[in-house]
Amino acid sequence: MIFKRLEIGLFVRFLLLLGMMYVTLHYLAQFTWLQVASGILVMLAQVWELARYVTRSNNELAKFLHAVKQRDFSQRFNEQTTNSSLQQLHRAFNLINDTFKQLHIEKEAQFQYMQTILQLIDTGIMAVEEETGEVEWVNEALKKTLSLPYLKSLHSLEPRYPALYEAVQQLHPGENRLLKLKLPNGTSQLLLSASSFTMQHRHLLLIAVKNVSTTVDETETEAWQKLLRVMTHEIMNSVAPIASLADTMGRHLQQERERYEREPNIAPDPELLEDTEEGIAIIKKRSEGLLRFTHFYRNLNKSQQLLLTTVYVQELFNSIDGLMRPQLEAQGILFICHLQPKDLTLSADVTLLEQVLINLLLNAKRAVEGRPQPRIILAAQQADGKTVIEVEDNGSGIPEELLESIFIPFFTSHKDGSGIGLSLAKHIMLLHKGHIQVESQEGVGTVFRLTFNS
After folding, report:
1. Fewer Cβ within 10 Å of end Cβ, the chain: N or C?
2. What's the CATH fold of domain 220-453?
């Protein structure tokens, strides 16, 4: 519509200009110089008015764009002008001004909103220009944490907190770093993290400083509690068979003492003496193994040095049999040991291997509780040049959805379990360059298979 009206205005002015030219030429032919001069002046005025008519929209547009450049959206354009084409142009300018003004208000409100959020959170945040180290912005949480009234530059941290200054200087985008720092209100653990971004051709680094002292203390306490539960569980796993064996030996010795009191001249029972000697040897060996296991567990996070020896599987099974059979038979569980060939050997740390087998047997004992004709089989064989030891039971089995989780530390499906036995067994097997596997079927039983490379 604006262009249509502009064309009409130009056409009318062009006709008037042609008419004035005709009149001027008519007077020129009759040598009336006064009229000719007047006509020329009128034509010049018409040309000037025509130029002004054509360019006034451009002038208004230039005026509007200059205001936009200066971000001055308060300027209003007269919509009541007598020029109908300019009315619509001014109306469009005012509409654009109102839109920009609303966007500016929304942007400012969003900025204030984000500022309020950043001021309320308990994590210290500061924006730093990477090249100069100048602090662009810092929230109250960081000022409160560091007890600083203001922070203009990273370099101002160096005199008061040199460790923090050095840590921030070495902090890379996407990196997290834990720093122990002495603050006015006491020593704290600070978690530093950084993220980089570019704004208006400037490279800025956003640094977050979180006081995690309470969280670290709670985590350490929880870790200690878990460690104590695990150690108690593992120690009980070893102490229970020792106590059972000692109780059996005590009862046999009591019976022998009573028999000796009735018949003072009777000769000692050589079989009882042999069993007692064997039981004491087993108790001694398992106690030493328990001490070594405790030392091993204490240094679990360090590089372990295995005490590798040639282990005769027959002797290993005899030791496990003497330790576990009294406890299993007392609960009516059939315990079977067999290996093929009889002279089977492997290279392993016998103390840790015993601990793995004891854990697996105790798990099997728990699995067969309440089952008809409970049975546990400890077997060993040679297969494909590798030594394989299996612990099989006819217990309740492991649900399929739990099979992938049973080796995860602290995962357990039993109320009194620690969730560390199987994960520790897997760790010990990895140290031996071997592996542990499990096959289970609910209602049928479970087989744990230890494979050692020859």
Report:
1. N
2. Heat Shock Protein 90 (3.30.565)
